[in-house]
Specification:
Elements (H helix, E strand, L loop, with lengths): L20 E6 L5 E3 L20 H20 L3 H8 L1 H7 L4 H19 L2 H5 L4 H19 L5 H29 L4 H30 L2 H6 L2 H17 L21 H30 L4 H28 L4 H20 L5 H11 L2 H11 L4 H19 L1 H13 L3 H21 L10
Antiparallel strand pairs: 1-2
Helix pairs in contact: 1-7, 1-8, 1-10, 2-8, 4-7, 4-16, 6-7, 6-10, 7-8, 7-15, 7-16, 8-12, 8-15, 11-12, 11-15, 11-16, 11-17, 11-18, 12-14, 12-15, 13-14, 13-18, 17-18
Length: 448
């Protein structure tokens, strides 16, 4: 629709009752972003005059942003799970000590916690498109460099570089959902979480066959750099068109949203941390539990892969349900019940009901897409979303880092799985308690 003549102010036919401006979200042109606007060079969903933009431009821009987000999400765990699948080969090839190998497995949570916390500072200075290009470039370069070195130290440093890119992208995606798709938060969060799960599964399943096909573990790790490079190319035009998000006075202002000073912020962080703790513990130890129960190594690996594979449809469904329900309590209780039954089954009948326990575990791990969707649902603005995302994820990954470590300590000390599973049940109780605090609708901006 053409703009109204200057003498006659345009009056929207469908006035929006909620605030249209995201107070902290910054576009690539240094102005506050209107919710749903592609401010980093993508076609806008709303024209600057307040009227509707052309339908084709809005649709094309939305699809382009969504495609870019999905491609980024595909990369968010491939570098981690491919290394896990080839850890023994890497350990032998680089002569890693047991301590060094243990540090490699803990490095992702350390990087996600430390570098994720710095992302809001970066968002106040650079457009999200530029940050995503830099993040994917770091992931690409890090994955390439770590497979061409023969030094264990260089391998660790370059792995940290790759993980730094993942850490920044982890925080940015919920903000981009809020900024570009404010009325489809659950659906879009489910889509990118499903892409993340697919990337996780494919990398875990394909890393060893690729390594065998090329005769080296380096190929099994390095091939995923190509996927990250494609993500760089997709976001690069938007990054080149955008400008750094500098404030008019040349300095960036600090966010007014402080999740660390709110009850909601801490509840989100504890829920994220507890569910991630169980997730990393399952990824690290479930196959060993099944092997100890008498399964062949390949069958134990297939059962572990089943948890991830079944998580793909759950990743799409869970955020959609979260966006439609007034209260999250039914979902939180259902997830907790499924996980509890799975843990009890693994403790007392791991072999007889293995498939059932895998199905229940997969459903219980739906807490991960649920909390990602909740980050967007518990913030009014893109600024609030990135602040809450950074706090919940960085603090949560500190908690999550304890999972595989404590499970291993309890397993070695007790010589069995009752103590480790008891620990996971205790963590689940903490997770459920935190879930009750985030279940009812409210916003982080209101708790400042």
């Amino acid at each position: 629709m053409p703009p109204s003549p200057p003498a006659v102010p345009a009056v929207p036919k469908n006035p929006v009752t909620r605030p249209a401006v995201s107070t902290g979200a910054v576009t690539g042109k240094g102005v506050p972003a209107v919710e749903g606007v592609a401010g980093e060079g993508f076609p806008s969903a709303v024209s600057s005059a307040g009227g509707a933009a052309p339908t084709a431009s809005r649709t094309d821009g939305g699809w382009l942003v969504l495609a870019g987000m999905l491609l980024v999400a595909l990369n968010l765990r491939a570098a981690v799970t491919s290394l896990g699948a080839l850890l023994d080969e890497v350990r032998v090839g680089l002569a890693l000590s047991g301590t060094m190998a243990g540090f490699v497995t803990t490095l992702p949570t350390i990087a996600f916690a430390g570098l994720g916390a710095a992302t809001p500072w970066l968002v106040r200075r650079f457009s999200p498109a530029r940050l995503l290009v830099l993040a994917m470039l770091a992931l690409t370069v890090g994955q390439v460099l770590r497979v061409v070195t023969g030094s264990a130290v260089v391998f660790l440093v370059t792995s940290a570089l790759a993980l730094a890119g993942i850490a920044v992208a982890n925080i940015l995606l919920p903000m981009l959902v809020k900024q570009h798709f404010p009325h489809r938060t659950g659906l879009v969060t489910g889509a990118y979480t499903m892409a993340l799960t697919v990337g996780t599964t494919v990398a875990a399943a394909a890393a060893v066959p690729v390594a065998h096909a090329f005769g080296s573990w380096r190929a099994g790790l390095g091939v995923w750099a190509a996927m990250a490079a494609v993500a760089v190319l997709l976001w690069l035009p938007a990054a080149l068109r955008g400008r750094t998000a500098a404030r008019p006075n040349g300095t960036a202002t600090r966010s007014r949203v402080r999740p660390g000073r709110t009850r909601l912020g801490w509840a989100m962080a504890v829920y994220f941390g507890a569910q991630s703790l169980s997730g990393y513990a399952i990824m690290g130890w479930l196959a060993q539990l099944f092997r100890d129960s008498g399964f062949r190594p390949q069958d134990a690996g297939l059962l572990l892969a089943g948890v991830t594979a079944l998580g793909v449809p759950i990743a799409l469904l869970m955020p959609t349900l979260a966006g439609r329900l007034g209260s999250l309590r039914p979902l939180i209780f259902a997830l907790a019940t499924a996980s509890s039954l799975a843990y009890l089954g693994l403790a007392f009948a791991p072999r007889g009901g293995a498939v059932l326990w895998v199905v229940l575990l997969a459903f219980g791990q739906g807490a991960f897409p649920l909390i990602l969707a909740t980050i967007g649902l518990r913030a009014r603005t893109a600024d609030g979303t990135v602040a809450l995302s950074a706090f919940a994820q960085s603090t949560g990954y500190v908690i999550a880092a304890l999972g595989p470590l404590l499970v291993g300590i309890l397993y070695d000390a007790s010589g069995g799985w009752l103590a480790p599973i008891g620990f996971l049940l205790a963590a689940l109780a903490v997770q459920t308690g935190a879930g009750m605090l985030i279940a009812r609708p409210r916003y982080i901006e209101d708790e400042r």
